[in-house]
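Lab notebook page, bench 4
Experiment: in silico fold of construct C2
Operator: M.H.
Input chain length: 475 residues
Purpose: comparison with the prior construct
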Amino acid sequence: MASEALHTAGAHASSHEEEHHELPARVEPDVIASELIATTEANASGVRNWAWILGILSLVGIVSFGVKIGVEWGNQAEWGYTAAIVAFLFSAFGGAPLVAIAPTIAKANWVRPVARFAQLCSLVSIVISIWMIPMILNLPMLVVDGARRRSIWFEGPDVSPHVWAIVALTTLIICSVGLIWAYGMPDFAAMRDHGTGWKQRFGAWAARGWIGSTVQWRTMRLRIGMMGTFYFFTFVFVHFMLSTDFAMSLVPGWRDAIFPMYHAISSIQAGLAVTVIGIWAARKYLGLEKYLHLDQFWSIGRLMFAFTLLWGYFFISAFIVFWYGRSGSDQMWIDYLILGPYFWVFIGAVLLIWFTPWWWLIWNKVRRSYNGTAIGAGLILIGVFLDRVRLYVAAWSVPEDRIHERFLTEYPSTVYPDVFDILIMVGAVAASMLLVILATRVLPILSVWDVQQFNLLYRPVDYMKTKVSLIGKPD
């Protein structure tokens, strides 16, 4: 039997919010299944039009990508913005699945309606891998003319960064697909039983004989935990590799033990923001108001606020080392990456990734609203993008013939994006969004079985002078 406990968030709801936001209503299982499956239809709420627009933008980005390869191949400084957009996409979409993994392991009931969308964002690792090809091939070799450049591969073979980058990205794709498959088996079975055509055949193959027995449910939960753990460890490793091999090792004298964790923390912050914007759009344009409630936005809003403060902590923790160290390389880090050619980009990043979201999300009324949380998420995403531009464009603009210096003494001038850089970045973002939309044509954007379990474990009740949510905790 499930033991029931009062949801603390509901218990502290203010009377002002209760006047504007009702508690979620119970929905019948058949209604949940029919309405959520209907969202996978190609013409659902204009999704086809958005798919065409994003497809055209993606095609333009791919063509620009090919032209840049033909014109700028071998010119390391010209690939800084490609590196920045790859790092941004991995930070934003790669961090989103952690929104589902950690609360699911903790058995948080609020995360059930948003877990599917957060997991589908991990498919963007396919786009990241394609866009990362020129970065890998243009990455300087570890040893040139007998001189080994500084990197984490002290005794590794000359091609260590290139090989391990491919291995890491391949592993991430496998973990992403495995996580989605493990979580979606009940919905694949529903597709098998109620779908037609290729969807029915695909559902029959992916469901692997799922009938919903006790053993199958127990095994599925073990698979979810296992694949979630694999994804988390791969996620951390890719951040470590991306931040060190594709940014820090390209700038002579840049040594920062906190930077990989700073990179990962801002990725989780961006992943929360992507999830908020995704469920906000699904609620507004797909008619899913009865399934995406204030509780989801409020819970993720609190997490975004916490990681916004945590971003400031990690940045200050790294900054004070360089500020008080005052060695030549420490001063170089401050002069080049903070006060140098990308100073205004740094100011914009700090304002949008930390300062403004901090003073925006600190208000309860903002976090307890749909639009307020989405606005905070949008600010964070812009800030993370600017931060990645500051870091990666600066790193890739260092001339390759100066990479063996002790530390930079002359700083490259500001590199501005050209037309191809802008089209490549727009195309990469469009391709990422398109891939997620296409995935929702196969699996519902909200998991049918998860939403049904949400309803089974939830009941609105009266508590003293207010309305609260009574949540049953599964054993």
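Observations: The beta strands are 3-6, 143-144, 147-148, 458-463, 466-473. The CA atoms of residues 41 and 441 lie 6 Å apart.
Next step: discuss at group meeting.
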